[in-house]
Every structure is written in structure tokens, then in C-alpha cells.
Amino acid sequence: MKKYNVVVVGGGSTWTPGLLKGMCTRKDTFPINRLVMYDIDAERQQTIGEFAKVLFNEEYPELDFSYTTDKDEAFTEDVDFVLCQMRTGGYAMREKDEKIPLSMGLIGQETCGPGGFAYGMRSIRDMVELVKDVRAKSQDAWILNYTNPAAIVAVALQEIFPEDNRILNICDQPENLLRSYGKLLGMNERDFDPVYFGLNHFGWFTHLYNQEGKDLLPELRENILNGGFRPADAEQRDQSWLDTYAMVEQMVRDFPDYLPNTYLQYYLYPDKVLNKLNPEFTRTNEVQAGREKRVFEDCARVAEMGTSKESNVVHNDAHGEFILIVAESIAHNKGDNFIVILKNNGLVSNLPDDAMVEVAASITVNGPRPYAVGEIPTFYKGMIEGQYAYEKLTVEAYLEKSYGKALQALTLNRTVVSAKQAREVLDALIEANKGYWPELR
């Protein structure tokens, strides 16, 4: 069996240990010859990198592993897969994405609303640069992208690299939801045949078939309405994520047709969610005090002790495993079904063809072969069209350096609506993102 050369971009991420553990778990089905972790933050990556050395020494000693801050070392002609999970600006900018809108009475969240807009404007530049760096060395490497906000990044990459068929934008949240549905029903998430439509962080499951063809969505709906909803890995989640999943019950009660992506809470109930957010202690602060602290302390302890046997961060999470099983499906032409982000081109027949929609697709060596959804009802069509207009205008604002289009984008966003507030938050975000955004005119 062929062994693959893999680069992980964003090696200093708190999600990387789970990804590395996934590589160990899947070494017989997705064997790796050489793994390089790449990050521009040497200090963060070193902690994860030294942990990785111990983990691989115990579980994957034949793996050729290294980590670097030099892109010329990372991206070589023989790379097969580049797995991207960048965060431009790090937690310092994420905190501003959350706290600036909250200071103005608006939703402060990293991928939704004004915070998602700010993050998207930063991510576009670095993702475009990364694609160019990879393609300068290899036209054949698969670029599997987790970088958020994935919806905006996907629109930008499609606009700038329309002929590059080896860029695949993905998100692990539908996978997290499938795992959580599986736990409720006592099933493995891979045994589901889901039907899903929407944009990234803005979609719905319409059917959830089992292997015998029975739609389990009605049963799952009743389970959620009667018993609430929790993530499959609830014991490893911070409180804000438990609150987020709990909101699914309210969404299903109000809109019972389909099962929603958790992120829809920000768009359907912005006033209710806003009242629960603490402008002095946001999700960034919770991550820094929670997962960030746990992961880096544990990785440092593993490196010092020289063993990962008692590590608390090497469990197989959805984030780490999902990107690997997608890569495995490509590598072995398995044609497994996953929910991924693709150009619409009629998949949802009453949405614009250029929208980057999130749908189920069979993933092959030649890329995704998506399943058409057909026509969707007016409510969902209207929601998606407004959100896609916001995403498209955000990308156009970046590419054209247009203040006007940035203002239009934020005015359209359901978490803002008011043009006055859109202008106020835009001006504050421009000031905070100097050096990251192009100068808007």
C-alpha cells in the first residue's frame, strides 16, 4: 500500500494532538511516509511538536516526522495532502472579533456575524498565499481546508482559483452532529446516509437514513424534543458548547421540518443568544482557560515524561478523524459519503449556481461527486440567499478593497440588520485589523 506525504498547516493548534492521534489509529488504512507540521508560531508549535515526537515514538515509530516554520521545508514536490487549520491573528484577534461587536450590543462570535466577517477578511489573504505556495511546488497535492470561517474562505478560493479541483473545503460540525445523533440512537455515525443542504455553519439535515433505508429523522426529532440534545463528547466540551447544543431543542420546536446546524442559533435567536454572552469573558477566554490550558499543559507533561500513555488529549475527536477519513477516501478511491462544501451548480436547484453549498457527496480519487438536493422551501431559500449575499459581498469587499461592499455585507447579516450599527462595527473592526485587511476605500 502506498504511503503518503502529509503537511499539517497550523501545527500549533489545540486540535492538532487529536489529529496526530488519528494518524496513529489509521496508520494501517492511511499509511503516512512523511509528516511535516508547519506553523508561523514557533513557540506554540514546539510544544505540540515535542509531544508528537513522544506519541509517534510509541505508536508510529516508522513515521518520518518533523515540524518547521519554513514553508519551503514544508511544501515540497512530493506532498500528497496538505491539511489546513490556520487561525490568522491567533487568539488575540479572535478576542477582538468577539468583544468589539459585543461592546456595541451585537453578537460576538468567531465565525458568525461581525466577528466572522473580520476573521474571514483576515483568512482570505493567508489561504490564498498558502494555495500559491503549495501550487508553486505541486499541482497534484490535495488541499483539505478546515480554516474558518469556511464559508467565506470557500467563496474566496473558488473565485480566485476556479480551475483548481484539488482544493476541498470541509467542516467537522456536520460530523460532530452525526456523532451526536448516533449516540442518541445507539448507532455509528458512518452507518447514516444523511441528506443535508445549506451553507457552512448554516444548514439543515432533511433526512437521516439507516442502512435499511428507514428515515430516522422523525425518531431523532422526538428524542431531541423530549430529552434535549448534547454533543457526543459532552464530557470534553466547555460550557458554551453545551449551551450551544442545548439550543437545538428550541430550534427544532420552532422549525420542526429539519434538524439544524447548531450555529443557526446566532441567526434565528440573536437577541436571546446575545443576552447569554458575557462581553468581559467570551468564548476566546473560555478556550484559553479551558481547552488551551489543558492541551498545552498535557503536551508539555508528555514531552517531559517521555510517554503519552496517560495523556488526556490524544482521544479521537471528530476534528482530527474527519479530515483523515476524507483524505483516506480520496487516496483509496473509496467513494465514502461526507458532507462537504462545493459550488452549487444546480445541486440546490432554486439557489444561485455560484453559491458554495454544503451537501453530501461521494469522495473519490477524482474529487467529490455530490448528491443533488433539488428545490428547497421558501423559508430556507430566503435564509440562505441572504446569508450567501453577505458571504459574497464580504469576498468582493476584500478583493475590490470596497468599504461600500463591506458595509452592505454587514447590513445584510441577520445578527446586525441595522445599517447604522453595521457602519459603527465596521469602522471599529477596520481599526482593529490594520495590517491584516486591505485598506478599504
UniProtKB/TrEMBL annotation:
InterPro entries: Glyco_hydro_4, Glyco_hydro_4_C, Lactate_DH/Glyco_Ohase_4_C, NAD(P)-bd_dom_sf. The keyword Metal-binding applies. Pfam families: Glyco_hydro_4, Glyco_hydro_4C. Its cofactor is NAD(+). Residues 196-416 form the Glycosyl hydrolase family 4 C-terminal domain. Binds 1 NAD(+) per subunit. Keywords: Glycosidase, Hydrolase, Manganese, Metal-binding, NAD. Belongs to the glycosyl hydrolase 4 family. This is 6-phospho-alpha-glucosidase. It comes from Ornithinibacillus salinisoli.
